[in-house]
Design goal:
Aspartate Aminotransferase, domain 1, PyrdxlP-dep_Trfase (chains A, B), alpha/beta, pyridoxal phosphate (chains A, B), about 15% strand, homodimer, 7-stranded mixed β-sheet, 3-stranded antiparallel β-sheet, about 375 residues, alanine--glyoxylate transaminase (chains A, B), aminotransferase (chains A, B), SP_NH2Trfase/AEP_transaminase (chains A, B), 14 helices
Chain lengths: ~375, ~375
């Protein structure tokens, strides 16, 4: 039995439902941010992040900072690119476009390759682009939360190593870390930025990121210092190293409560091996996709290989609007999210199946949601 | 009886002890950041911030963003100053110096006026500086957490209005909001930046700020767009306005748990009128200063009018080091902070007396701390 007050089941692509233990970790009594107890917890949490992204390189660097997924873009844009340098942004939706906006805001010269709606730019297009210009970095959204499109990072890194090996490869893993396969070292990534409130299952409020040794070097050896202070990696690197080494350190006050919750969430998701957890997300995602197909509905991500396992963006039947369906779902105790894409916004809804709702099938969240969806569409006059 | 596990009393200058109700607010079940329930709470919290800083100007703008006090400096430096513009920083310690560093990082031309150790730059020096150059803004640390020095913001604004009325006046209120008198409208301030974990009594993890209508205009009418994304006021202003108007809005996911805790903290501190709460902090601070004088100890802030009511930085007796006293205090269940000032670092300790520890005298936190201090110094061989 959950200790949480009764509430509708939150199945948007983040924030997600909390495990009781994670939520209760937030209620930790107040501690000094430089006291022995918190230093130990924070240091341990940073080390756990290495396991979550599957890196054993001691020179790669985890960062956990008060903020959000968005702040991760700033870390990349402010520190790894200098004004006027070229960046290739691979976009499969709203969040790829926003990453491009952030980079542009900091003065990067952005070339954006867009996939078709519900798809990704092709490897051939990407290789062509990489061969035409010297890019400082290339970014890809591992799962674009606006479309539920999964990006093949492994193949991307292979292309980059072949065509332009000095280019850094940065993944936006906000909606993928802890639910999609991700092997930082094996694939050869240079950065993954994420947040606590999606598949990791912690409360919102943290920017969580991980950078390769060469990315950290780029940040620390800029020609022109980064015009950022809070988002300046040079200010944070020694702090993170100290905490992980068990030494108190101060640049800006971290949030002990959020770190406690993240620590619990990390331990839970690593307890049985992260591979198992990811396999469970794949299983649940396959089940969701099959179930909506039976309802006669189509995912926005049209090709199987482009479909994320974190969430499903679902096209609504002709004549049924999101503003009709979402309140009906809510009346049945299920919260989905509205569309968030410039072209197809009102035509689809988003179903997040991450974390405890996917992993703990005893909760029945997924079937509850699928049943509520079927009923709600029926009430809108739709029959599968 | 507190519902919190037994723990040493945290009396550093933030984070501070939590009220149970504030801490429990963090355990709220997961909500959509754009759902009706959270939109109402967030909007209300923004409106409550107006009351906390005593502003009734509908065109002044509250901001509550995942972050920390430090991020408030970025908001000021990234948005209100353009590269090469002059800024006058009034410093009474480490945090004034750091604000200057942040402004410099963003390209501002900083002139720093330092007070003597334990004091503030004089009004005459400030007026002289203001008359020598056209400053885009002047910043002052209301309470410098490194020294416990209080800055007279009211007189500062009067000087600026007289000598350089176009100059914006920005206060770092991280360690002053909710424990020192602060009248945003009456005094004519243009910005106050603060954080949740000091006198407000909420958990760390939020950057809380408030800007005058003319400051917001400066941010929105820059010659060159701010090279910042997460810390860009233009990205946040419409979001904050929407939430306060009860409309869901999205730029970056806020932390519902932290906002719930902040909402509870704000309601508590406004419940009996903020003036009463501030008067109580003055009373407790006076008592602490008298008590340490009886122990033969001196505050770092030497003049009465320069002494903050949030905390007391206390010089240790000759021959007694912070590394001797702090562990002895901890063994008696009291946590003070070490010194944090370039010149006098090891010679003093810091005692935070904010929030529930000051306001709720039934807890006995203050006397417990004073007794522990007396005993600890005795164990170090010091006799008053």
């Amino acid at each position: 039995m959950s200790s949480q007050a009764p509430h509708p089941t939150l199945l948007i692509p983040g924030p997600i439902e909390f495990d009781d233990a994670v939520l209760q970790s937030m209620s930790h009594y107040s501690e000094s941010h430089v006291g022995a107890g918190f230093v130990k917890i924070f240091g341990e949490t940073l080390s756990l992040l290495r396991q979550v992204v599957r890196s054993t390189d001691p020179n790669a660097q985890p960062f956990i900072i008060n903020g959000s997924g968005t702040l991760g873009w700033d870390l990349v844009a402010a520190n790894l690119v200098e004004a006027g340098e070229d960046v290739l942004v691979l976009s499969s939706g709203y969040f790829g476009d926003r990453f491009a906006d952030c980079l542009t805001q900091y003065g990067a010269k952005v070339t954006k390759l867009d996939g078709p709606v519900g798809g990704v730019p092709s490897p051939a297009e990407i290789e062509k682009a990489l061969s035409e210009k010297k890019y400082k970095l290339v970014t890809a959204t591992h799962v674009d939360t606006s479309t539920g499109v999964l990006f093949d990072l492994k193949t991307l890194v292979q292309s980059v190593k072949k065509v332009s090996p000095d280019t850094l490869v940065i993944a936006d893993g906000v909606c993928s870390v802890a639910c999609e396969e991700l092997a930082f070292d094996d694939w050869g990534l240079d950065g993954v930025i994420t947040a606590g409130q999606k598949a990791i299952g912690a409360p919102a409020g943290l920017s969580i990121s991980f950078f390769s040794a060469r990315a950290v070097e780029v940040a620390h050896n800029r020609k022109i210092p980064a015009a950022a202070y809070f988002a300046n990696m040079k200010n944070w690197t020694p702090i993170m190293k100290n905490y992980e080494a068990g030494k108190p350190s101060y640049f800006s006050t971290p949030s002990p409560q959020l770190i406690h919750a993240l620590n619990t969430a990390f331990k839970q998701l690593l307890a049985n091996g992260i591979e198992k957890r990811i396999a469970k997300h794949v299983e649940v995602s396959d089940y969701v996709k099959e179930s909506i197909a039976k309802l006669g509905l189509k995912p926005v991500a049209s090709k199987k290989e482009d479909q994320s396992h974190a969430m499903t963006a679902i096209y609504l039947p002709e004549g049924v609007g999101a503003t009709d369906v979402l309140p009906k779902l809510l009346s049945k105790g299920v919260i989905f999210a509205a569309g968030l894409h410039a072209t197809i916004g009102p035509k689809y809804i988003r179903f997040g199946h991450m974390g405890i709702s996917a992993v703990n099938s005893n909760r029945g969240d997924i079937d509850k949601a699928l049943n509520a969806l079927k009923e709600s569409l029926g009430e809108c006059g739709y029959k599968a």
